[in-house]
Batch of 4 targets.
Target 1
Amino acid sequence: MSSLYGLIGEKLGHSFSSIIHSIIFKELSIDGNYHLFEVNNEHLKDAVCGLNALKAKGANVTIPYKVDIMKYLNDISIESNKIGAVNTICFKDNKTIGYNTDYYGFGIMLNKYNVNVKNKTAVILGTGGASKAVVQYLLDKEINDIVFVSRDINKVDVKFKKFKLISYDEIKNIKQKDIIINCTPCGMHPNVNISPINKEDMSKFKVAVDLIYNPTQTLFLKYADELGLVSINGLYMLIGQAVKAQELWNNIEIDSAICDKIYYKINSILQGGNNE
């Protein structure tokens, strides 16, 4: 009998999760089915209980439920507690355990492109949910300094209060830094003709990372390429977090070659303009 997996979220029409996990199932000969579960907030607890009752093996969680889902789980992993968000659930022995594989996916992506953050300096654009896993990974890997950029520095999550916070108008005053990371949706399909910062400010960095993967080259990354920076989009992180989830669900280790194979397949779909 096939094992049940899925994605819990509010609006999932453009998710690539089913495609990614189907490729993993095929490559590793896992007998599984991955479904998309669009759930209203008032039914979130019911969704967790229902999947547990159906003896699902695992589920991913996407916006806007990565924080709310935590109160309905039996246990939370160390990295999820530190981050304050869960994006993966393991169903084991009638218990639910929350993990954050965005954290690992971000690390897998940086390792893929040989980006070492130890003792480096970083600027993170955005203080929303996407930035929580990113900042925790950077701290755990001994980054030297982090500056956050927010549209409203007075309304940021308490988690970010211990860091230097600046507005977008103040980016022009930043001195040379190593890495800039876009954790905002600015530039995402279909609004592809905008960038969170201008080309001149981009020149202050050596590495530019955009968590957006559609389009594969945002205007933000186009500026980076034109300036000769190392530029990385979020597709490998998306794949890395899915692979890590499968490792947790099935207690296995997945070779990096599988990540590469998935990357080329999904990238081909994106380049072809198919974002379903």
Target 2
Amino acid sequence: MHGSATPLSASAASAWLLVLLCAASGAYCLLRVRRADRRARGTAAGEAVMGFGMAAMAVPSGTGPWGPQILLAVCCGASVHALWLLRGGGHHAHHLVGTLAMAYMALSATAGHGHGRAGLPLVTGALLLYYSGYVLLGGARLAAAGGAPYAAAGPGGRGADGAGELVRACRLAMGMGMLAMLLSM
């Protein structure tokens, strides 16, 4: 969703850093799937799909096999999965918004609106507001958790939602990545 893949451009360097950040978050979430109990496995799997999907979307244009049509199909499949998991409540509503936002960006790219061109201003603006709020709230929660004694978070350093500080940091990183991609539209 970024500019050209020129090796010396600042835009390409920031795009590749975003790819790395999202892929690392996705890999960590994939590791969480293996360790999680049955109930938390769906959330971790959804976050892994989001991380890897965002990494694929952040690849500078003209690089790699990821065409907008493939990304659109993957994002739509992830949206259906998030909708299925939504029946359990919790963090899955955010996954649904995220997968729909990624499908929207992929659709904008297939329609010739991506890579620096705006999608629908109302949809883009609403998503920008959502992710700005998500990032600010997530950052505040992470800062508050960092200030509290580690043992106060409960067994294993996990908070009430079952997420440790590293999980919250990954969620925050992916939220910032989504915000950056939306800003580049």
Target 3
Amino acid sequence: MIRKIKSSFTVDVEDGVSLAMRDVFSVKSRQTSRVVTLTNRILELLGQFNVKGTFFMLGQVAEMFPGLVKDIAEEGHELGVHGYDHLQFHRMTREQAFEELSRAKKLIEDISGREVFGHRAPAFSITPETQWGLDVIAEAGFTYDSSIMPINGIRYGWPGFRKNIHVLETPSGKNLIEAPLSTINILGKEIPVCGGGYLRLFPYWFTKMAFEKIQKERPVVLYLHPYELDTKSYPDYYFEQLKKANPYKRYKMKSMWINRKSVYPKLSNLLKNYEFGKMINLVECATSENTKMLH
């Protein structure tokens, strides 16, 4: 009998400095060791509570820091794919997307010696307009995906998408398990909760309320990025670009630092009060009638 797991603890392993340099300032820069330091801090926190989680690795990070991939695997956590170059699906062709996913999957499997089952798209970029990406994910050999935010958002979202973990049929007729990100309905509007900037900005009591509300109906999918624990000043070359940026970009980047110091204590409280596990176990439990797909 498969033991029921109420929540999954997931990490999208990417380097905040290099992504900000590329996506905000259009400047190419190397991955920084901050992603290792911060991911290790998450690993230490999970170790304190004897929790195993799922780490969706960016291919660039795995290539630059293979030791981090090995450490995650050796500590018993699950490894997944978060793309190779952190490209959103609407910025790729089908062929480019397949190469992006396949390349990252092979690299992470080669480094860790473990099979990779799961995928999460950068910026939750599987939407009604990019649902062809579900075909690509299945074709690349993944068992499950966790990329869909069932909201009507500005940057991402799939309004009306089923909120529970389920087996779906991709546009070309393939089977793929989808584990949507967690949301709650407030006054008729779906609100993202339990991860990323929402975990950082919402007070703990609100996140706790959301956890308990969701768990009455389905498992919770918690997610975060290592940089959300980063409270130290970024490198000088980052601030050189920030000074030259327009007011909107400066405001956007400064807003990313609001309440960062609150994230670690919030995670500690959640780990203390709720049961977490790896996404593959959550998926296996939720789709126990289809476990043959997992082998």
Target 4
Amino acid sequence: MDDDDLHPLLKAYEGLPAAVAGAGRDPVNTPMIRHWCEAMGDGNPAYTGPAAIAPPTMLQAWIMGGLSGHEGRAQAYDELLGLLDDAGCTSVVATDCEQEYARPLRPGDEVAFDTVIESVSRRKTTKLGTGYFVTTRTDVRVGESLVGTHRFRILKYAPASTRDRASTRDRAPTRDRDRSRKSEEPPALRPRPVVNRDNAGFWEGVREHRLLLQRCAACAVLRFPWLPGCQSCGSPEWDTVEACGEGTVFSYVVLHHPPFPAFDPPYAISLVELAEGVRMVSNVVGTPYDKVRIGMPVRLEFREYDDELTLPVFHQVSQEVTG
């Protein structure tokens, strides 16, 4: 089915509910705020004490359904994804999210939410493949009061390698098909980072093989990831310092599923604490996933994955035995 036939069917789902009368599994609470701030390295005093508020960026955390999910998921969203599956768009990747905050959340607040399918794009061709961007909008409330809005966007797509093989197979004579099967397929591309005005300087540094951290010009606190303002004092003024590249594995998870063409699970995703005190998510390369350990000393390196993508990764520092 071509886009002119499919897109009107997809557009008909805009405005329909994706979740109705959802409720947060737990009230806003101090332990979750503390865990979040520790993981993010956010020491803002507004998030502690008797008058504490929750970090605004935790908005989605209070409405996540966990492994068992939420009750009240609407049929329309599943039907929309089913149409895209039937059209060959069987892969999915989260692309970005946007949040708007109406008022702070405080410990004890019980949140409720409704989610609608806000928009479905026309067919788009990306480096991952060809598919459709689907955006949902979630309005989060406490009682009748709107506290925030969360927009979440995914790309449902047919992987480029799969699409290209199918197209070639349809056109090629039998002898060419046999030859094609024997030829080596090009490796799938890794997803591109989302570069915006707040983090462009970081990615410019990566291209130059420099890991740049932001430093508040008012209180000198370092921060990562890059943000438009200081988490400690709120100042919008900042400069940068270059990280020395030494660090340790603060935490890690091993990803087994879902598979993705550009990766080969299982593999470890690590939270590395740099010598400067900030933490960043990256990969530990050259070490089997089941050998990564908390406290492992690592050193920065820059790895070029293709002509356009360079990423900061880490490798284990050898432990030399003396004596």
